[in-house]
Amino acid sequence: MLSVWAADGSPVRVPELKVRALLADLLVHEGRPVSADRLADDLWGEDLPGNPANTLQTKISQLRRVVGRDLVRYEPAGYVLHAPDVDAVRFARLLARARDEGDLAARAGLLSDALSLWRGPAYADFADAEFIRPAAARLDEQRLTALEEHAEVRLALGEHTRLADELSELVDGHPLRERLRAVHLRALYRSGRQTEALAGYGALRERLADELGVDPGPELVSLHQAILRQDPALAPVPAPATSAARPRGNLPAPLTGLVGRDDALAEVGTLLEGGRLVTLTGPGGVGKTRLALAVARGREDAWLVELAGVGSAGSVGSAGLAGSASSVGSVGSVDSAGREVPGAGSAGFAGGGAAGLVGVAEVVAEAVGVRDEVAARAGMPGAGLPQRLADALRGRELLLILDNCEHLIEPVAELAGLLLRTAPGLTILATSQEPLAIPGESVYTVAPLAAPYALSLFAARAGVGLDAAATPYAEAICRRLDGLPLALELAAARVRALGVRGVAEHLDDRFRLLGGTMRGLPARQRTLRAVIDWSWEQLTPAQQRALAALAVHPGGCTPEAAGVAVELVDQLVNRSMVVAEPPRYRLLESIAAYCLERLAPDDPLFARRDAYYADLAERARPQLYGHAQREWLARLDDEMLNLRAVDTGDRLAWYLYLRGRHTEAHRLTAGTAWEPGFAMLLGLPYQEVRGDDRQRWFTAHAYLGLGDVGRAEPLLTGVLAGFRASGDRWGEAAALMGRAKQAIFQGDLALAERSGTESLEIFTDLGDQWGRMQANDQLGYLAEITGDYARAGALHREGLRIAEDLRLWTDASYRLSSLGRIALLAGDLGRSREFHERGMRLAVEQSNRFAEEFARVGLGLAARRAGDLDEAERLFLASLEWNRRLAADYGVPFYGVTLILAELGFVAELRGRAVPARELHEEGLRAARELGDPRSVALAQEGLAGVAVLDGLPEEALRLLAEAAELRESVGAPQPAAERGDVERIRAAARKALGKTDP
Question: Which chain positions lie within coiled-coil regions (predicted)?
Fold first, then answer.
């Protein structure tokens, strides 16, 4: 059952089924963001409510009221539950700790603690929900595995009598789980109930045959035979007295703790329970060996076989690849199908073929103590050693860890297959940069550490605390070293000499920085270069050249973009040198840096890349206007790191504007006609540069963003005529959208309605979603002015949907704040604050000060309506300072200044401070007249009416209110009822002073 507790342990009631389902949905995603669309689909399926977005937001608000606002956060990718303490997480941690614990009693206690967290099946109250089933099934499987492990530990501790009875019900519920059945049979036998044990085996065999058509596994067959012959080995054995009892294996004791691998420990442990061959793959330095040893720790018969030193790593690949730029061979050494041309590869392991197999078998035999087989090699054919080793292991139960197999992959795979076929009690855990690729293998890819764990490992190994100043540099180190544990440990070793910041600043020369050897490690792991050298030398020249071709693309790429055969890319993925994110592929930063270091500056790979992306930028430019906009925005998003590496001129200006990357666009367009617009968007000085009509429109668009109608109007008039003459319908729609905004500033609401509607029609016909959103925006503001809040809200919600769909987060910020304004006018102050806060967060994330100020003013409006004058004043003063600075820099009053001055004037008036209130409203009146905005003039007059009441001039107050009302009527924008609060308050005070009362 889904249950919630407060910090003090008291239960928290989560009302309403859909809110509980929402909580469950966020929980099963384990801290990953979930989009609003996905949540709505999970909660309602095809039976969506009339307004899914609003209904979902209501459920989110209800959940936040229960669990706390900070725990349910909205991020650009969706909603995230930041739950500090979840039973499923605690269970996994306890399970991992138990598997790492050598003392049986302590392990039993940890497993008992883990199992005590269960109160029934996972998410039982949502068992029929499709989105719950995978997570619930995974958790239930983990619980059963933990129950089996707990039973085995208790059996080893001598609790067979109790287990014989306790496990009966569990076995009946899960009759086909062979591991569970095995521990039950052992418990029955040790309790003197041999007949029941034999009957239990018979029942399982019949059920497997009937339902699955298979026989029991080798372990159960061996157990059945041992029971039949009453093998003494089945008798109870005393548990080790302490955790200091020495295991029979040869695992080295760990020197440091394993960080960030709890989930991996549990998952690999589960794979080993379900199969007899598990291979851990991943790039060099990712921690495959450490994970394998941690998984095996505590097992009674685990043996480590170190293969890194077997054979000559240098014999693989070309001997002439000593690090010069010319050492990277030619992609042409593969045929059209990606197969290597004969002679282009290497001879393989120096002891390849039968000799290689015998050599590996000899090392394994030595490691596990089968020395008689090694000694016998002198008097028998060498080829017989692998089989003699397999025969010697036939009756043993052991875990064999074959470490670092990549340079011996063929002989290791052959030997592993032979041993597994011959010795049923053998399990193999291999570590390799590529799979063994034999039947029965389960492959587990060891990923680099996630950011928080990488940071923890770096700090722990560096032996330093990370304060606010050092943390950003440490995070950069972890990110640039790809979360590879070995690289992080090498970097941490340099902190003492350079400090955290110094290490971060030297990462551009990472191979020199991380080149100081660390004692106590194999030679191949003492430097970052040595780690990658080891992997590089396993590649053929064709694979090396393909890797270099991928490395020149810093953002990853498709095989087509790199000019590399797909088959070669697949080989590199299998060797853990390339990260597959189909259809794209990328290199870890350190591997890419290694490859780039080997390339000459004039290598043709660079020229090919530059030409490819320059052409892509040129092809993308027209596609960003119209139906293909979404597709090409996403495509350029994928390629942005690559595009930054080449000179694309100003081809990306519009893309960067849509993505809100104004600083980058300003730098990119320096000296072009795009530059003035981006300068204004950043609040920077500029000089106009005459360009084509679209570039001139963009300058006018930027002027309107500043509220500078005087400079925008002639530009818009000129480009509108030019667009119509040339038949540029997108330009015509853009100019009409600008004219609608201009008309709103000037109070010409009829012109704004005509222009905005015509713009929307053209953009819709063209399929340009950005344009539709902008036209919707102007029509939404117009509806807000006229008091049609339902229409305004619908238009802004449509704009928000488009912005989120196109991932235009700056535009999404504006739309959220606009919805906040509508909620404010509708009297829902809580909803208004929520919308404005979301808009503020997005604006800050995008570093867009204009959007941030728009949200800040909205929060100020909500604060004043709520009666919090201090908070309102604080917010408005911060915005006023910024607006005044911009007004001084650009020599024009800003539209936003008039509203802010009016609001501050009302705050002063409500406090009874006539002098500052008058000064603020008079300044606002001057700015409004300079702007030529009748509605702003009216607002200032209404403010001055409040000051007149304070001054004891009620007749003057009523006159000013009448003039303001007449002025609003003259432009077709009478004040809607929701906005008359100040006017009605001031009118009532004036009439009361005159001894009049309203009817």
Answer: none
Rounded to whole angstroms, the Cα distance separating 540 from 330 reads 11
Each residue's pLDDT tens digit, 491-523? 999 998 899 999 999 999 999 898 865 555 666
Backbone φ and ψ of 911, nearest 5°: -85, 0
> Token pair for residue 52?
């899914």
Number of domains in the chain: 7
Q: Are the C-beta atoms of 784 and 861 separated by less than 8 Å? A: no
Q: How far is CA 721 from the centre of its chain?
A: 47
- Residue 119 tokens, joined: 């109160």
Looking at the DSSP assignment, which residues form a beta bridge with residue 75? Answer: 78
Calculate mean pLDDT across residues 917-942. Answer: 92
d(CA 999, CA 996): 9
Most confident of 82-91, 700-709, 717-726: 717-726
**Phi/psi of residue 79, nearest 5 degrees:** -90, 145
976 in Cβ contact with 792 (< 8 Å): no
Q: For 798-939, list the strands marked E by DSSP.
A: none
pLDDT of 237 reads 39
**What is the C-alpha separation between 974 and 354, in angstroms, rounded?**
95
Whether 642 maps to a domain, the answer reads yes
Last residue of a domain, one of 531, 562, 596: 531
Write down the residue that tokens 């000459």 correspond to: 600
Q: What is the pLDDT of residues 297-343, one digit of tens each?
A: 988 789 999 998 786 433 333 222 223 333 343 333 333 333 333 33
CATH number for the domain spanning 727: value is 1.25.40.10
What is the tens place of the pLDDT at every residue in 964-997? 999 999 888 888 888 899 999 999 999 999 987 6
772 and 813 both lie in a single domain: no
> Which letter, b or e, does each residue of 497-510 get, where b requires 16 or more Cβ atoms within 10 Å of its Cβ?
eeebbebbebbeeb
Query: Which two three-digit tokens encode residue 866?
Result: 């709520």
Scan for tokens 């050298």, then name that residue. Answer: 533
Element (H, E) at 492: helix 485-492
Dihedral pair phi/psi, residue 554, rounded to 5°: -65, -20
Residue 755 shares a structural domain with residue 825: no
Q: Name the residue with tokens 């294996």.
A: 249
Q: Is 831 contained in some domain? A: yes
Which residues are within 8 A (CB) of 949 and not within 5 positions of it... i.e. 6 or more apart? 957, 986, 989, 990, 993
Measured CA to CA in angstroms, residue 401 lies from 101, 173, 468, 484 at distances of: 19, 35, 42, 22
Q: What is the pLDDT of residue 127?
A: 66
Among candidate residues 31, 47, 81, the one where a domain is terminated? 81
In this structure, the dihedral spanned by the alpha carbons of residues 696, 701, 703 and 709, taken in order and rounded to 10 degrees, is: 100
Q: Are 776 and 795 in contact (CB under 8 A)?
A: yes
For residue 371, the model assigns a pLDDT of 54
Q: Are 84 and 5 in contact (CB under 8 A)?
A: no
Residues 267 and 366 in one domain: yes
9 sits in the region (left: phi over 0; alpha: psi -120 to 50; else beta) called left
- State the pLDDT at residue 167: 87
The CATH number linked to 43 is 1.10.10.10
- Whether the CB-CB separation of 858 and 832 falls below 8 Å is answered with yes
CATH number for the domain spanning 286: value is: 3.40.50.300
State the residue range of the domain holding 60: 4-81
Contact 951, 963 (CB under 8 A): no
Give the CB-side neighbour count of residue 136, counting CA atoms within 13 A.
18
**CA–CA distance, 708 with 892 (Å, rounded to integer):** 7
Q: 101-115, 641-655, 695-709, 957-971: which range is least confident on average?
A: 101-115
Residue 255: what pLDDT? 77
Written as six digits, the tokens of 918 are 């008058």
Q: Which tens digits make up the pLDDT trace of 604-629?
A: 999 999 999 999 999 999 999 999 99
